């Protein structure tokens, strides 16, 4: 109990608002980068620079889009978990996670290229086979590709589009609803506890929506790149990465806000200690699940499954996979064992940035190795024969990542500036501010 | 023999509440005592900080215990599966590259050895199990498991003095101060 005991006199009565002038520079720069990148991307997707860059850039876009999709989904998971478990420690950081989660509806804009048949032509081969069908699709598949015939109940175009609509409508409704409920409390003269109970009630079934979203976005956007391949651990694997890295983003945002003088009395070393512990737990969980996936596939030795790791253990991809073992698990595991480090916001933020870099590598290895193979299959004249990686396509990856990343930062700062940075009239804010573990 | 000199264990003082115990512990810590302890019916949050206790060395034991477990498991699996009796299963390699198959047992033994290290390391650091404790000679001390909050300062402490320590305990709110002597050996 070395720190000052927080009383209600320390809580800002009208909330702790972000000063717009102090962040306008970052916000403007991020907005301009996102806008320029989007314009260039639109030109690429409309085919101005030719089919080669259009095809390779489709994969870059898929990679960047999916990695930034996982972070708001994970942040929403933390909000839901916080409500449903009736936790009090996280009241002061809950708003931060709501703000990160609120980026999710905006990401629909960036999913639009992936919904266009001209772009899907390069990404999802099963759609090409479906679209090439004449007459009854199912009957056609019966003769063309029996695997797709058997998977038709799940892999068919109307259902695919319906699922994408479900993610963006249902899950956006979850996060927007929770944020609205939470924000309305800041100005209510008689906050009471009814919002708490309502938030708890409306957090149980959304956890199912969350599970469906993280699993099936993974199926539809990432696993669908190779329709023959499947993994039974895929959803859990993506969930582990999403939960870990949304927590990392939360740590970074809290540290950044504290460095600007916000969250002064309500977020302290103890909160960072808890968030660091959760990061540590999910680092371990990620390793556990990722190895489980590898192990199941390695042991079973089924052709359809092993292709994933065969591709990623060919050539220099193998270096990336080995780097993932040590960089995503061993190093953060040993570093995050330190309790004093988890109580230091700046050091924990460095670890969080490092974790995010590893998350990028992780998702790069999920998406990009498929590129040389698929494009070589679809159009060897333009992209060359099937190869390990397409030379020169790397610049597109950077462009797509910077574009969507800048947009993510822009929408996040915009969300942070809209309302108080912590729920200042939550009945449990003092309990949260004085937490010690 | 009835005239044997009894060894003095130290002073025992009762405090009326958990917060009184907490504040008393802070004062004894600031007075520079090292060999003393608090006794309460339930854990008191932050008391370790109030007593000025350093972090335990146990995590280090556990870390290296766990590493020992990993190494043991790897050595066991590697020796049996690669060195002594290599078995080809599904054309998997019979060299160090078959290590994924060893991971489950490496994981399990890491946890087993860590668990054992926690248990036995904790017992060793607490000097448990023991048959008796000098404080059991005190008649009031059994209330430490019911509703009593006690602080005992040992005579082994270099700062201990027969009068000064008693006065210190009295000044910080200790009641029922008694000099606990060890029972006949």
UniProtKB/TrEMBL annotation, chain A:
<feature type="transmembrane region" description="Helical">
    <location>
        <begin position="237"/>
        <end position="257"/>
    </location>
</feature>
<feature type="transmembrane region" description="Helical">
    <location>
        <begin position="319"/>
        <end position="340"/>
    </location>
</feature>
<feature type="transmembrane region" description="Helical">
    <location>
        <begin position="398"/>
        <end position="417"/>
    </location>
</feature>
<feature type="transmembrane region" description="Helical">
    <location>
        <begin position="278"/>
        <end position="299"/>
    </location>
</feature>
<protein>
    <recommendedName>
        <fullName>Quinol:cytochrome C oxidoreductase</fullName>
    </recommendedName>
</protein>
<feature type="transmembrane region" description="Helical">
    <location>
        <begin position="159"/>
        <end position="177"/>
    </location>
</feature>
<feature type="transmembrane region" description="Helical">
    <location>
        <begin position="65"/>
        <end position="84"/>
    </location>
</feature>
<feature type="transmembrane region" description="Helical">
    <location>
        <begin position="29"/>
        <end position="53"/>
    </location>
</feature>
<keyword id="KW-0812">Transmembrane</keyword>
<keyword id="KW-0472">Membrane</keyword>
<keyword id="KW-1133">Transmembrane helix</keyword>
<feature type="transmembrane region" description="Helical">
    <location>
        <begin position="96"/>
        <end position="116"/>
    </location>
</feature>
<feature type="transmembrane region" description="Helical">
    <location>
        <begin position="205"/>
        <end position="225"/>
    </location>
</feature>
<feature type="transmembrane region" description="Helical">
    <location>
        <begin position="347"/>
        <end position="366"/>
    </location>
</feature>
From TrEMBL, chain B:
<dbReference type="InterPro" id="IPR021776">
    <property type="entry name" value="ActD"/>
</dbReference>
<feature type="transmembrane region" description="Helical">
    <location>
        <begin position="101"/>
        <end position="125"/>
    </location>
</feature>
<keyword id="KW-0812">Transmembrane</keyword>
<dbReference type="Pfam" id="PF11821">
    <property type="entry name" value="ActD"/>
</dbReference>
<keyword id="KW-0472">Membrane</keyword>
<protein>
    <submittedName>
        <fullName>DUF3341 domain-containing protein</fullName>
    </submittedName>
</protein>
<feature type="transmembrane region" description="Helical">
    <location>
        <begin position="57"/>
        <end position="81"/>
    </location>
</feature>
<keyword id="KW-1133">Transmembrane helix</keyword>
